[in-house]
């Protein structure tokens, strides 16, 4: 793998969110400030939205790592494609409570008793909902109802909602007035600019022991930003492939042309065939577009699986290329013997 080749202690551009690599861009610092402000208030809802791959999950995991566990009991939910009752079961389960075979009334009672127990211990309960754009209006209303658990002077449960921009449409729909009244802060996390994208790349490399090898010129960084648009996950995807290509081609310095070559490779891999699919016109085209958009949203929720698959693929490619290099470098007799050994 390229980590060893470049003297890195770990993979710097993995897809799965890791608070160890948290980078404080202007947008991320501001979003973190909103979360910390909301946490200090101890009640209501905090809403953070951002595009796919903008770094919302890394943001909240960084916050959860900083939360004092002797003061706050936190639950983090990422599977949100559920109906209201299943979401309630997920909430109960995330706080470590039994949920199997229980009715809705029993679930609510268990949750309330748990929250009151947490309060008696001098602690607070925090519920973090990721991928909130998948919540339907009825489920959001179910979550709002949980905020009704209160003592005489304070709320027993605070909720953070993180999702893609379309969640704002749900939030501003006619039936969400009561929830909107309980939102004490809301922020949209936008992409990084070109300078921040460069700093982001260097930050992730430095985190795993980068000492300047490999190097990137101004044109390379410009090409990275042109492709990623300042979205962290797209930056990670591209840089991971750039370093893999550098390892295979034995490169220690990257320019604009090198990055653009990798961009072309990625584009070709995801390009649809030129031939038109049967029925892909009119309503059929709309349906196909809808499926593609749905797949894109699902990708955001399964980046850890994708990351593992990419790592296995990289290992396979590197293994095959290492064998080929040995065959090419060896004298003819030894090359044939090496091939026989591999068989």
- The overall pLDDT average reads 83
Q: How widely separated are the two ends?
A: 24 Å
Strand order of the largest sheet: 2-3-4-1-5
The coarse overall form would be elongated
Helix content: 55-70%
Number of beta strands: 7
β-strand percent reads 5-15%
Instruction: Write the H/E string, N to C.
Output: HHEHEHHEHEHHEHEHHEHHHH
Query: Biggest sheet: strands, sense, closure?
Result: 5 strands, parallel
SS-derived structural category: alpha/beta
* Rg on CA atoms, Å: 24 Å
- Uncertain segments of ≥5 residues (pLDDT<50)? 276-285, 296-302
- Total helical elements: 15
Describe the structure in your own words.
With 343 residues, this protein is α/β, with parallel strands linked by helices. The chain is built from 15 helices and seven strands. It has a five-stranded parallel beta sheet, sandwiched between helices. The protein has a two-stranded parallel ribbon with strand order 6-7. Strand 3, helix 6 (137-146) and strand 4 form a beta-alpha-beta unit. The protein is elongated. The model is unreliable at 276-285 and 296-302 (pLDDT under 50).
